[in-house]
Design goal:
25% of the residues lie in helices and 28% in strands. With 224 residues, it is of the alpha/beta class. The strands form 3 sheets. An 8-stranded mixed β-sheet has the order 5-4-1-6-9-10-11-12, sandwiched between helices. Strands 2-3 form a two-stranded antiparallel ribbon. Strands 7-8 form a two-stranded antiparallel ribbon. Helix 1 packs across helix 5. The model has no long low-confidence stretch (mean pLDDT 94). It binds cytidine-5'-monophosphate. Cytidine-5'-monophosphate binds next to helix 3 and strand 9.
């Protein structure tokens, strides 16, 4: 039986990739499937939370009982997350946000010419949504980031807690076959702002989501 230990809590979750248009038919994006973020939203809803899910373009069904808002670009996701965050007790930024976007979006499809063997795309940096939420966080709000790393997992995760003013970061190594993008399973380490950490061994993403929520619940500020 699922415990209803999130009753009365407002949870805001993001999931999936952002998609940054180049022209009307092309974009820059990444391999995020949305599975981990959707699992977190579903788990929180099952445990009694009132959940809003802000999702990039993925091929998953919207979770039952969750307010789901579809966005495309980092800028869309930033606008939505920042307008929703004031009402949230817990914010979990799982989305794989594109760090860069094309510096402008062509209104017409880009055509190749026969004498062209190279093409340069100029990218500009996207706003860091999580960092902005960290700056705006009010006392009692609990902010969680995710970090997918190919190396130096612990050092990078700990740095991001400070830099983005997080309460917890869920870090996982990507590039393996069992964990990370596209897979149905994941393993990760949770790092907390007090310096402690917890390993979550390889399991189904839905089970990982529940363990993540178990850990988060024990650290919530009673003012929240
Ligand atoms: O710094 P890095 O991109 O590794 O941090 C990952 C965390 O920051 C994730 O929670 C991701 O959703 C968030 N992020 C963001 N906006 C960006 C880039 C990353 O919110 N532009």
């Amino acid at each position: 039986l699922t415990p209803k230990d999130f009753v009365g809590k407002q949870v805001l979750v993001s999931a999936g990739p952002t998609l940054e248009p180049i022209d009307p038919v092309r974009y820059v994006s990444n391999h995020s499937s949305g599975k981990m973020g959707y699992a977190v939203a579903r788990a929180a809803e099952m445990r009694g939370a009132s959940v809003t899910l802000v999702t990039g373009s993925v091929s998953l069904d919207p979770p039952v009982g969750v307010e789901t808002i579809c966005v495309q670009t980092c800028q869309d996701m930033a606008d939505t997350m920042l307008s929703k965050m004031a009402h949230a007790d817990i914010i979990i930024q799982v989305a794989a946000v594109a760090d860069f976007r094309p510096d402008h979006r062509e209104t017409l499809k880009i055509k190749k010419t026969s004498d062209q063997d190279r093409m340069t795309l100029t990218l500009v940096q996207n706003p860091d949504i999580l960092r902005t939420m960290g700056e705006r966080k009010r006392p009692g709000q609990f902010l969680v980031g995710f970090a997918a790393e190919t190396h130096d997992l612990a050092a990078n995760a700990v740095k991001k807690i400070k830099k983005k003013n997080l309460d917890m970061i869920a870090a996982n190594l990507v590039g393996g076959k069992d964990a990370g993008f596209q897979t149905d399973t994941n393993k990760m380490t949770l790092f907390f702002k007090d310096g402690s950490k917890t390993d979550i061994p390889l399991m189904d993403k839905q089970a990982v989501a529940h363990v993540l929520l178990d850990n988060l619940l024990t650290r919530l500020d009673p003012r929240g």
